[in-house]
Each structure stands twice: as C-alpha cells, then as structure tokens.
Amino acid sequence: MALFSSLRAWDLPRIQRSARANLERSTARYGGQLDAPGLSMHALRASKTHIAAWLLFGLLMIPATAQGDDLILGWGDNYYGQCTTPEPNEEFIAVSAGGYHSLGLRRSGVILAWGDDWLGQCSVPAPDTGFVAVSAGEMYSMGLLRNGSIVSWGDNYFGQQNVPAPNADFIAISAGWGHSLGLKSDRKMVAWGDNQHGQCAVPSPNAGFMAIAAGQWHSLALRSDSTIVAWGDNAYGQCDVPAPNSGFVAIAAGTSHSLGVKADGTVVAWGENSYGQCDVPVENDFMAVSGGMGHSLGLKRDGSIVGWGDNYYGECTPPDPNECFVAIDAGRWHSLGLQSGVGAWVEEPSSLERFLTVNPNPFTTQTSIRLELPPEASPIVSVHDLQGRLVWTLRPGTSPATTHELLWDGRDMAGLPVSAGVYLLRVSTTERTATRRLLIVR
To answer: pLDDT of 316-357, one tens digit each?
Structure first.
C-alpha cells in the first residue's frame, strides 16, 4: 500500500522513513535482498544510529509477573522495542499504539513512551504530569491534560501538532497518520493537520459527537444517536458505514478500514480487507475494538482479546494468560493490551457481592453502586472509558458507616451525558482494587 499519494523532492526524510519500514518488513518476510538507489538498508540504518543492535522483529510476550498491578502487555513487531514496556510495568490506566512506538498513561498522570523515537515521538515534553488521556499517531504523540488542553510531540510535517486556538475544553483526542482530532466538552469536534483527503473537514452539523477516531487519511465519529459519521479518503470504502447505521456504542479506525461495536456486542467492519482485517469472527460479546494496518483487535466482555487479519508478526496472537484485559490498541504491526492484574480484576458479579454491588446493570439513566467496607477503608470510586480516561469519580470518605450507596447518572464530571457503551467501574481502597464493567444502553 502506498504510504503517500505524492512524493516531494524535499521530503527525503519521510520517503526514507516509509521506504525503510517497507524494505525491512519485506526483507524479513520474504527472505530476499532488496535494493533501491540511495535507500539501501545500510544507508537507512546508518541515518538512525541510535537503533540498538539487539532489537529484533518477532513476537514478544511480557510475562504478567506483577500480580495485581495494572500492566501493559505488547506483542507483534518489536523491531524498535515498541512491545517492551518500561519498568516498573504497573499502575497504568490507558494505552495507545502508534506506528512503531507505544504510549502508556500512569494513574499518577505521567506518560511513558517507548519504541521508535526518530522524530521525538517518545520524548514527552516536560513537565510530564497532569495527563488524563494519550493517543499515538504514526510518528507523533498526543496527550490530554486535566485542564482540557492538548500537548503534542514528534512529527509535525502536516501541522498535526498545531492545535487550533483556543487549546482548551477538550475531553478526547485521537491521532492519525498526519491529522489530529479533538472532541470538546460541548460535543463539537476540531480537526487539524493533513487535509488532502478532506479528513479534517468535519461534517455538519458539528454537534452531538460522543467519540472520535482517526485513521490514516479518514476520520470517524460516533454521534449521540448511536450512528457513525465517516469522512476523508474512501478508496477502500472505509467511509461507507454498512446499513443499518444504528445502535453503535464504540468505534475504531485502522489504516484504511473502520470498525464499530453495537450494543448487542457484535462488531461491524468495513474498508480495506487485504489481510482479512474486516473478517470479524462470529462472536457477539465484544465491548471494544481497535484497528491497525492489516489487523484488528476485539476486547470481549470476559476480558479476553481476539485478533484477526495480518498475523505475520503475531500481532493477532495475545499472550497468555489471555484474560483480565480492560483496554486494547492496535499499532501498525504490533498490539497492546492493558491488563488489570491477573487475580485482581474481577469478572463475575458473584465474587464481588461481599463488598460491591451495582444495580441495575445494564442501565439507561442511573445505577446504584453499593459498597460494604470497613469504616477505615476510605474508598475511591471512579468510572473510566475503555481507553482508560477518567469519566467520573467520587470519594465517599471515612465515616463510621460500613455501607456506602452512591448513584451515578451516566454523566461525566462536566455534567454531560456519556455515550452508550461499556465503562469500567473501579473501587480502590488501601487494601485492594476491584473493577466492574458497566453497560449504558441509550
């Protein structure tokens, strides 16, 4: 697949970058010797002297040695170390996979970045603190701060880092190849960067958006009425949402394909299907999806991950134990999963009834969260989306009472209703942390 629609004489770094990736992958995949004038493997590698000699293509499975910690597992292409999560691998709440790099957001609001740093996409600007969301693009990165502003670093060839003023009131971000999307608290979208395919031309009416996703040259958005809007490059039909366009609760954009999850747990995929990335397994219990270049990932309600499409580097084969995952993201040829600690992530309601019950669940407008805890527990209750972003939080505080009953009305901290879909309820005390899935049906 062509990485750019046109080549410019002054765009040698981008041509080298694209050619390097294709040459290295093709050489490894087909065992041949590929030569191109001025773009030999030696010359390309020499232009990036910090590539470590021990980095290899292949499947990397990180053992879940930190029982009970929220850790990130990576698998698939690991040439740049994009699957090797920095130590200590713990206390992550969000994850994002870029072209050849990865991002993780810690509970403390600090971003960790690893993998290819050729254009500075792993060099998080100081001060690295106060972040609530992350998104990794092809060769650049984005972070959303608690104050609603966006910070970007890495490649800026198309101006994808140049957030339009005012840089404020953002609640969600998505990084593509050369364009960026931001969702404001009033549910309007802002798009900037590469617009050669119209991927930054947000359709009217620009209102009522609940979720956003940026692909290579196309964009997706989920409206409050559970329909999907798609615009930009449509060479593979990635903007032609299959009928009926209704009942969606989550979206994801791959390089040239699109995915959506419906309220009944089924996944719909459309667009490029050269590697079978749109051939969704016949299952109906998904709660989140993610698209890479030639592969797709689905997170099931039981906490396991299913992958389909291109699996040359093992990017569709999650490591064992394939359980307790709460978030996923697909990069170009690698995959990431956020695992909420084997043994600490609780799946079945029966095992939580001793101290936590949620009723009703699923719900439409309001649910009751009931806690049975010791008086000194001082629990912190929070709700996160499937990318790990904080949606709502409350600290009941320390009191003589052992029973706390909280009500969540399905609104975020700005008082706005969240979209239908799956959310993660987290209850943390000094002794333990438990996570439950919440399903909002609108």
So the answer is: 999 999 998 888 999 999 999 998 754 443 444 434 446 788
**In a shared domain, residues 176 and 106:** yes
Does 220 reside within a domain?
yes
DSSP 291-308: E-SSEEEEEETTS-EEEE
Which sign does the torsion angle of CA 249, 185, 153, 338 carry?
Answer: negative
DSSP 8-state secondary structure symbol assigned to residue 282 = S
Q: Which residue intervals of 54-106 are DSSP H helices? A: none
Query: What is the rounded distance in angstroms from the CA atom of residue 330 to the CA atom of residue 318?
Result: 11
Both 369 and 333 in one domain: the answer is no
Q: Are residues 377 and 434 in the same domain?
A: yes
List the domain range (segments joined by +) for residue 364. 349-440
Residue 258: phi and psi, rounded to 5, are: -130, 155
Among residues 340, 367, 396, the one where a domain terminates is 340
Q: Please count the structural domains in the chain.
A: 3
- Tell me the pTM: 0.74
Q: Which residue type is seen at 86? A: P
H or E stretch covering 21: helix 12-30
Residue 303: C-alpha distances to residues 105, 176, 261 (Å): 20, 27, 16
pLDDT tens, position by position, 363-372: 767 888 888 8
**In 224-344, at which residue ranges do the beta strands (DSSP E only) sit?**
228-232, 248-253, 257-262, 267-271, 286-291, 295-300, 305-309, 325-330, 334-340
User: With contact defined as beta carbons under 8 Å apart, do 277 and 296 qualify?
Assistant: yes
Domain shared by 331 and 377, yes or no? no
Q: Is the peptide bond between 127 and the residue preceding it cis, with omega within 30 degrees of 0?
A: yes
pLDDT, one tens digit per residue, over 39-82 is: 222 222 222 222 222 222 222 222 223 334 689 999 999 999 99
Which pLDDT band holds residue 412 (cuts at 50, 70, 90)?
confident
Distance CA 438, CA 89 (A): 26
More confident residue, 5 or 23: 23
Q: What whole-number distance in Å separates Cα of residue 273 and Cα of residue 266?
A: 18
Residue 6 located in a structural domain: no
Tell me, what's the pLDDT at 240?
Answer: 98
My answer on whether 401 and 322 are in the same domain is no
